[in-house]
Structures are given as C-alpha cells and as structure tokens.
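stage 2 :: seqdesign
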C-alpha cells in the first residue's frame, strides 16, 4: 500500500484513491500532495487501489480521481472529483471551517453518508491492515 503512516494527531484524513496505470491520476498526484502544505491539520495520503485492494474492504472506486475525507472517525466525503486541485482545495476549506459537531451531523445527514460510516472508514481499514 502506498501511504505514509497516519499521524494520529491529525484531525483529518484525506485519501486520493487512484491507480498507477491511470494517466489522469499520475498527472493529479503532485498537485494533490502539494496541498499538504496548505492543510497541516490534514493527513493527505495517496492510495493505489490495485496495490491496496485487499485492504480497502467495501470501498468501491468507480472513477478517478476518487477522494475520501474523514474527520476523526466520521467519513464526510467520498466520491469522484474533477482533476482540479482548486476544487479539492475549496472542498477541504469547507470541511476545515466546520466544527466537529457540524461535521458529525453532515456525515449522518443522508442515507448514503450514513452508509459510508461503516463501509468506508479508511482509518479503521488501515488500522486492520
């Protein structure tokens, strides 16, 4: 699995789920990793879904790049994004501006998001790996 060890002191986990064979992913990677400097409270990791398939549980990636954002144990976002670092930056700014309580409420606000809490908890999956 291609990820840096998770820093338990980081409130957010932001994972880009991609594949090395994907040209869009390869082009996106450097800009994704550069966002770490703008969001020190977030741990950004790159996960090659093919190399890590055994560790991803029920996470099903349908297109690239797919982003998973957790705040603590709450999955607040999972989905495909346009390969535009400015869009991801604004998304991260939005979640960073929420209180912990707002993020928890957001994570539980729809049936889809409630489903992410068990099937897409990447922190839990990485702890088990």
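stage 2 :: out
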């Amino acid at each position: 699995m291609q990820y840096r060890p998770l820093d338990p002191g980081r409130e957010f986990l932001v994972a880009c789920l991609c594949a090395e064979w994907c040209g869009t992913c390869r082009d996106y990677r450097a800009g994704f990793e550069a966002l770490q400097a703008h969001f020190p409270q977030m741990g950004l990791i790159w996960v090659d879904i093919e190399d890590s398939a055994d560790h991803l549980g029920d996470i099903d990636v349908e297109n690239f790049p797919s982003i998973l954002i957790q705040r603590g144990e709450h999955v607040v976002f999972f989905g495909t994004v346009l390969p535009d670092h400015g869009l991801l930056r604004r998304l991260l700014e939005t979640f960073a501006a929420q209180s912990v309580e707002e993020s928890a409420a957001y994570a539980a606000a729809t049936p889809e998001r409630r489903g992410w809490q068990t099937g897409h908890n990447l922190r839990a999956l990485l702890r088990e790996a």
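stage 3 :: structure notes
- The first helix runs from residue 23 to 34.
- The domain at 12-128 is CATH 3.40.30.10 (Glutaredoxin).
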